[in-house]
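Researcher: Next sequence.
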Amino acid sequence: MYDLHDIVEMKKPHPCGANRWEIVRMGADIKIKCTECQRLLMMTRRDFEKRMKKVLEKSSNED
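Model: Next structure:
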């Protein structure tokens, strides 16, 4: 499963060439940020789960 500040890989790469995204907001919508160009993208949780390929890095924050 995924959590806030995890680094995920999506099925399609971003136009800048990177395929690593950081989850910056979670709720009914999920906001992700490209780790290369810092572009923000917001999508519904359903779309995110459909487009996410795998979790690359778990966040180190243990709250």
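Model: The chain has one helix and five strands. The longest strand covers residues 29-34.
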